[in-house]
């Protein structure tokens, strides 16, 4: 019987040749015929290689030597674990650390005696108030003493105690203690804030008969007298 592939290719070739003549290109039929011949050649060759002649062959009989018996090994789970090995129980003991400080210490290094570290005391700045200037005066103008001195007339009516202070620390309280004839006549308390130049003053009325020696003491919040100044009141009508 003819191969259907060859029949189909032959019909296709005829159709193509007819189309070449119909298109008035008869020269095109020559390569078509060449391609068809090559196709037939390879088709016949492939058919011969795909259908080789089967050759009969014989296999020699297997001879079993009954004298050599291969032992059958029982690999069932029961045979494998028929003899259970003896397992030695290990008793777990808790780990106890005597001293937490030795947990991460290198055992190869020699222990060195602990050194006592003495903390350094923080540097403290001098926070005490310092009096730069003190004066007894009749007036205060533009935060400065006016007509200051050490002796005044009994007609002065009142006097001021002026102080120029330096306070490097925090806010603190001072007191001006006015004394006459070894008696405290007045205590005037005021506050001094943190400042390099803090000006303050207190005022005291002077009566005409209070003639003699006066003293003004500057007392801090601890009750310590840090500065004193004296002045005299004289009677101008005395002959």
Note down, in words, how this protein is organized.
The protein is α+β, with helices and mostly antiparallel strands. The chain is built from three helices and nine strands. A hairpin with a 2-residue loop joins β5 and β6 (183-192). α1 runs antiparallel to α2.
Secondary-structure map with pairings?
Layout: H1 4-22, H2 29-50, H3 77-80, E1 130-141, E2 144-148, E3 151-153, E4 158-167, E5 172-180, E6 183-192, E7 195-205, E8 212-219, E9 225-234
Parallel strand pairs: 3-9
Antiparallel strand pairs: 1-2, 1-4, 4-7, 5-6, 5-8, 8-9
Helix pairs in contact: 1-2
CATH fold-type name of one domain: Immunoglobulin-like
Mean pLDDT: 76
Q: SS-based structural class?
A: alpha+beta
What is the alpha-carbon Rg in Å? 65 Å
Count of alpha and pi helical runs: 3
Largest sheet: 5 strands, mixed
Global outline: rod-shaped
> Strands of the biggest beta sheet: in what spatial order?
3-9-8-5-6
CATH architecture of one domain: Sandwich
Q: What percent of residues adopt helix (DSSP H or I)?
A: 10-25%
Strands, count: 9
Give the name of the CATH superfamily of one domain: Macroglobulin (MG2) domain
Poorly predicted residue ranges: 52-64, 102-108
Question: What is the top-level CATH class of one domain?
Answer: Mainly Beta
Beta-strand content: 25-35%
Distance between the termini: 176 Å
